[in-house]
């Protein structure tokens, strides 16, 4: 069994709080959103952060906005949101095409019972950075 080294955990309430927590806990703190990269590294003890700062609740970082011919995508935007976005499909079909491979569209059932619900659950996957795209003239 792979068990990470001990760490402390705090959930940020907003962006200012996240920045404050990073400053307070210093270089041995790490931001966690999806955890798809960090958690496996922690289990192998290749990463040993002393603090994990959870930013999953920072909804102000989860957006897709069209601004003229530009598209702004927040750092916590789900890959599935990019895949399903009409703006992305219209302005940047290549991003939508890439998301068909990247987005983790798996079906699950609530309480492990297909009879109760066939609700599709989509995991939140953090983009490594906020992005802004503009087509070439």
Unreliable stretches: 107-129
Query: Termini separation (Å)?
Result: 54 Å
Rg from alpha-carbon coordinates: 18 Å
Our count of domains comes out at 2
Task: Give the overall pLDDT as a whole number.
Answer: 79
Series of H and E elements: EHEHEEEHHHE
Q: Helix share of residues? A: 25-40%
Strand content: 15-25%
DSSP helical segment count: 5
Strand order in the largest sheet: 1-3-2
Describe the structure.
The chain is an alpha/beta fold and 137 residues long. It folds into two domains: 8-54, 2-Layer Sandwich (Uridine Diphospho-n-acetylenolpyruvylglucosamine Reductase, domain 2); 62-133, no CATH class. The chain is 28% helix and 17% strand. The chain has five helices and six strands, in the order βαβαβββαααβ. It has helices at 15-25, 38-43, 79-84, 86-91, 93-102, and strands at 8-11, 29-32, 51-54, 64-67, 70-73, 131-133. It has a three-stranded parallel beta sheet with strand order 1-3-2, covered by helices on one side. Strands 4-5-6 form a three-stranded antiparallel beta sheet. A hairpin with a 2-residue loop joins strand 4 (64-67) and strand 5 (70-73). The longest helix has 11 residues, at 15-25. The radius of gyration is 18 Å and the shape is flat. The chain starts with 7 loop residues before the first strand and ends with a strand.
